[in-house]
Sequence to fold (77 residues):
Amino acid sequence: HPDTGAGEQAAIFAGFTLFFPAAEIRARYGDVEAYLARAEACVDALIGAGFLLAEDRAWQLEIAAERYAAAIAADGN
Fold:
C-alpha cells in the first residue's frame, strides 16, 4: 500500500506495517542520510554475498528511502 512506502511492491503480502514513532526511528537510525548509508552498506554486503543482484542495487536503495520517508510521515513529523 502506498501509505507504507511500498506502493510499487511486485508481490502482495498479507499483514500490515506498524512503524515506530519518528523519534524512535531517528534515535535508532539517525537522519535519512545516515539511514541510507547503513542501507547502502547492507545492500552492498548482500550483493557481495550473492543474495542480491548488482543491477537491483539502485532499486533497493530507492525502496529504503521511500520506507524511511513513509515511516517518518506516518508519525506526522
